[in-house]
Amino acid sequence: MVSEVKALPPLLVNGDGDAADAWKLWLQRFTIFLRANGHDNAAPEKQVAMFLHLIGEECLHIFNSFGNPKRPFVKKPTTTGTQFKISVDSLMKNLSSKQLHYVRCIRPNQGHHPKLFETGLVQHQVKYLGLLETVRIRRSGFCYRLPYEHFVSRYKLLSPRTWPFPLCSPIEAVHVILHGLPIPHGEFAFGRSKLFVRSPRS
After folding, report:
1. 76 domain-assigned
2. CATH number, domain with residue 176
3. What's this model's pTM, rounded to 2 decimal places?
4. 109: DSSP letter
């Protein structure tokens, strides 16, 4: 403790003589003071505390005028524009990671009444939303797709060679199941990891 060692006179900066020379001399004496009292290997926090205690009240005021160098950095609050940009970037990143599905909402009646279905209104919406044309285009290609593992898990009971446990790879099991069913070959196609089906009736 500082009270257990020989006191070191404070640094005087407003007296006669050069302040720079006085500082160098006092710093040298402080270094000798630490070594002589076994504090040269002490923790930096302890050495700083001893330094501020011994340097004197006059120099301590000067030190305090510089502010606390260890004061945590205070981040400026983000502006409204920055917050908006961050929100948009987060939204776009979220949308990019999803698979898009388009949902057409059809109003069953004009008055929003429950259990009331107006056929003319619904037909009008279906026509002008282009739903029939969309369905026709979808059915002209392979609009249904299913991973091989899911297909085997769901339809393996249709073949005795795959039930209850197929003894081959998923794509081979799919071949076995489909070739044992009366489905035209043009109704399905094999991809790298999924089976593509042309019509839901298949």
Report:
1. no
2. 3.30.70.1590
3. 0.36
4. -
Total structural domains within the chain: 2
The answer to whether residues 159 and 176 touch, using CB atoms and an 8 Å cutoff, is: yes
User: Does a structural domain hold residue 24?
Assistant: yes
* Helical residues (DSSP H) of the chain, grouped into ranges: 19-36, 44-54, 57-65, 80-96, 119-128, 131-139, 148-155, 170-179
Tell me how crowded residue 50 is: count the other CB atoms within 10 A of its CB: 20
Domain carrying residue 59: 19-66
> Which token pair is 84?
């908006």
How far apart CA 112 and CA 97 sit, in angstroms, is 35
Q: Which residue has the higher pLDDT, 105 or 38?
A: 105
Question: What are the pLDDT digits (tens) for 33-71?
Answer: 878 777 778 787 777 777 777 777 777 766 666 655 554
Domain membership of residue 110 (yes or no) is: no
Q: 180 lies in a domain?
A: yes
Identify the pLDDT of residue 48: 78
Work out the average pLDDT over 117-134: 88
- Sheet-wide strand order for 188-190: 144-147, 194-197, 188-190
